[in-house]
What we know:
Number of strands: 12
CATH superfamily of the largest domain: Type I PLP-dependent aspartate aminotransferase-like (Major domain)
Strand order of the largest sheet: 2-8-7-6-5-3-4
Shape: globular
Structural class: alpha/beta
Largest sheet: 7 strands, mixed
Strand content: 5-15%
Amino acid sequence: MIYLDYQATTPLAPEAREAMLPWLGGPGSDGFGNPHSPHRMGRMAKAAVELAREQVAALLPAGGRVIFTGSACEAINLAMRGAPGSGPIAYSAIEHAAVRDTAQAMGDAYELPVDAAGLTDPGTPLPAGARLVAVMQVNNEIGTIQPNREWCRKAKENNALFLSDAVQALGKVAVDEADLIAVSAHKLYGPKGIGALWVRDGVELAPQITGGLQEGWRSGTLSPALCAGFGAAAKLVNEALDRDAEHVGTLWKHARTLFGGWELNGSAEARWHGNLNIRRDGLDVARLMSDCREVMFSAGSACASGSGRPSHVLKAIGLSDAEAKSSIRLGFGRYTTIAEIEQAAALINAAADAQ
């Protein structure tokens, strides 16, 4: 099988797996201690968690604290629901459902438009009294990179907090300044089941999961194994940032020639080039995926797959329902080869031509 769905999840790095093994525990092992226990095994587990916290923090701005969560969705909910004050929440029209649905559920939500290239404009007025502005740094469906430094500045000028969903940015590009930053391990070659919220010093949140408050604003026993895997993956991408970007850039250029007859969705320049979202008029994507079972690719966000609805991201950039439903997303990264891109393109193009 050829895996081209890196926006949905990434392969677990061998280094991350090795870092996790000692903390999975078992009879006769000393690696299964509760990191919140005061005895020696607990302190050992806590040391592993704190090392991981430092490794993740090294990819984020200085002057803040990393809070481990069960997912980026949980981190986003903690940030949005736990943020102080009242007033509208402004978010971009191409935000992940974790932001979009939460804002709408909380009420007083205000959507910021994007242009045909999938880019926001920091010159867009904010609603009066906005308390939180949320703009994702790299979009999960079309890969566009937003001007988050300018958005952060604008939020501050309007006395609002700025939340950045950096799930698709972490380990790929430098993460921009914000007040709150949500990230996930399994999008940067780490394990599933763990995310984190970076909180700028001086920002206070109201806990959304009460109990032991082991993470200060978040309750629940941490998994040293998941933390260790997240930390190891973060350390690896920190060391390989330029090398990974160069490899992905090479794959992108080659893929663009192989899919020359397809239309690109979103900006070609202001974009993470590990994301290739393309469309072909009249394409039956469900049939295409059935005909190309050896190629793992997507018709959009994994979180919304199977809904039958056209992508809200593609609709936001001006595509019709038919155009949105004739689009596919190819995602590649560190472990993708040129040969795999070529094989996938041959299979996808042949199946599309046969429709």
